[in-house]
Here is the input.
Amino acid sequence: MAASTAVRTRVADATEQAPTDPAYRLFDVAVRRVERVGASFVRLTFGGEQLAAFGAGGHDQRIKVLLPRGAFDAALAPATDWYLWWRALPDADRPVMRTYTVRAVRPHLRELDVDFVLHGVADGHAGPASAWAAAVAVGDRVVLAGPGAAGTGRMWGVEWAPPPEARTLLLAADETAVPAVCAVLESLPAGVRATALLEVPEVGDVLEVRSDADLTVEWLPRARPQGAHPHGERLVARVQEVAGRLVDEQTRAPQPGDDDDTEAEADDTALLWEVPEHAVASGPECLYAWLAGEAGVVKQLRRHLVREVGVPRQSVAFMGYWREGRREGE
Ligand SMILES: Cc1cc2nc3c(=O)[nH]c(=O)nc-3n(C[C@H](O)[C@H](O)[C@H](O)COP(=O)(O)OP(=O)(O)OC[C@H]3O[C@@H](n4cnc5c(N)ncnc54)[C@H](O)[C@@H]3O)c2cc1C
Here is the structure.
């Protein structure tokens, strides 16, 4: 079943830009600081003169991290179409590329922060990005792909776009989207009510969040004295408890077509990614929901909101940030 026209489905890359959009380009940077901000999070501060031209859009701005490899030299990349150039490189020289979020950017200091989750490091199952972040040292070089400052079009890589009338925001995420949620929450103005439900590996991952908005932040650590909750279990249960209370009975009328799989859900090989192009806030509480994390978990959350609670699809953005058992890009 095709997605409704009011909902656009998009994958998380920057290869479909319009000429007026601030073009993604490569930034050659070095690690300036390494800070362990949580039991599972390391914050890397990247710095370099090229970041003077970095054009971050704030909120959940995504970038690509190109891990050092072989004879790769970002200075050889063409000014446009770096992505095609990267794809054409010999395997031995093509950097592994992974998607991350700009947690904070300080253009005047030519630096930005990225919070990496160190998944799989303790048990030897880390992916390349997680392993790299766990071992990196000050001075190590890496290449980022992100928006250049020039351009008048849409800021690519920012999916946070609630409708202006939204007064009640529900953000549900796992640890990979905690940097995005924290950046979004910090940007919210007074007068907005936001509930953030954040599942993280352990209690030591609870971070401080400041905002002018009326915030409720609930951290849901998976670890418990014996073993751990499976990934997503606590998040799904809590969203189910909270969502029903946020939505008035009036909005629970079945939404036409909402019992069908969307195009994004039906394609099981792709990361789930659906952001309403013409978002609306629903119900008397003017609700808008933003969901991000492991793809299967996000799918459950979105289904619950739309099918069980009756939230219109145009009031829900959902993004699979990673997929259990799959490397990024597979
Ligand atoms: C828009 C966007 C923004 C993102 N922002 C961030 C961010 O700011 N910080 C961040 O840490 N991540 C972020 N991610 C998620 C990150 O891109 C993935 O976790 C990525 O797979 C990590 O690459 P890797 O090389 O470590 O593992 P991969 O080589 O991609 O995967 C190796 C294995 O690890 C598993 N895996 C991947 N991620 C996790 C995880 N978190 N926990 C457990 N198993 C995992 C995979 O299923 C696979 O089996 C973001 C993703 C997207 C799409």
